[in-house]
Structure formats: structure tokens, C-alpha cells
């Protein structure tokens, strides 16, 4: 799999997500999923890429650590534990690994109940979700 965090990968991302001119991206968008290992267990990392955009997330049994595309108000209304980090147009969060060192900038009340706070890293948020899911299983 191409690493979109390298200079070559970022150049490819810019080419694939450009809104003007011809794009080399196929008719179908890209959707990638992988198992990610953490101290507290496993989670599913996901990234989606389409013409003009992308998002990524890490899914655990009790919630999601994701990029800023997630709406916290709606997630909270549905009782979801969601923690978000935000990239920038110059440095977007593209692959789930990008979330690991990214700073959490928003959480739902349900995520806060798991101990996740603004200022945590994405990795810390995932570990807190994994700890909560192992507690629920006992």
C-alpha cells in the first residue's frame, strides 16, 4: 500500500484530490481498512479517498477516533463515543496512522466519560477506548 504520509504519497494525494483538471483516480473512490495493534488490543483503521476529499478513522468496540469530518453534536445525540482530531488543507489527516499523533480537539460527552479529553493524542484516545471495551467484557 502506498504511504500517503511520504512526500511522494502527498504529491499523489494532491493529484488525486484536485477539483480542477483531469485526475488519474479511477471512477471508484478508494476505501482502505486495516487491523491496527495497540497496547490495549486491536482496532480497525479506515481511510477513504475520493475526488476532492478524504477522511480517516480508527474504530474500536466502544467508539471512534476520527478526523474532523465527524459531527460531534449528532454523534452525541445518538450516544456515540467519538473523539476528533483535525488536519489542515496543507496537512490533511489521510490514513489512520495520521490520527495517532494528532491532537484531539473535540469529544462527545460519551467519549469524555471514557476519560478522553481535548489535548490527548489520537493514540491515547484509542487506548482509553480499548481499556473501556475490555472493562465491559469483564
List the helices and strands and how they pair.
Layout: H1 7-17, E1 30-38, E2 41-50, E3 53-59, E4 63-66, H2 72-77, E5 81-85, H3 97-100, E6 104-107, H4 109-113, H5 122-137
Parallel strand pairs: 4-5
Antiparallel strand pairs: 1-2, 2-3, 3-4, 5-6
What descriptors fit this protein?
Hypothetical protein Ta1206 fold, 6 strands, alpha+beta, six-stranded mixed beta sheet, globular, 138 residues
Widest sheet: strand order?
1-2-3-4-5-6
Spans with pLDDT under 50 lasting ≥5 residues?
A: 17-24
Overall strand count:
6
CATH structural fold name: Hypothetical protein Ta1206 fold
Structural notes for this entry:
- The structure is a single chain.
- By secondary structure, the protein is of the alpha+beta class.
- It has one domain (7-137): Hypothetical protein Ta1206 fold, CATH 3.30.1980.10.
- It is 30% helix and 28% strand.
- The protein is built from five helices and six strands.
- A six-stranded mixed beta sheet has the order 1-2-3-4-5-6.
- The longest helix is centred in the C-terminal third of the chain and has 16 residues, at 122-137.
- The radius of gyration is 16 Å and the shape is globular.
Question: Summarize this, please?
Answer:
With 138 residues, this protein is of the alpha+beta class. 30% of the residues lie in helices and 28% in strands. It has one domain (7-137): Hypothetical protein YunC (Hypothetical protein Ta1206 fold).
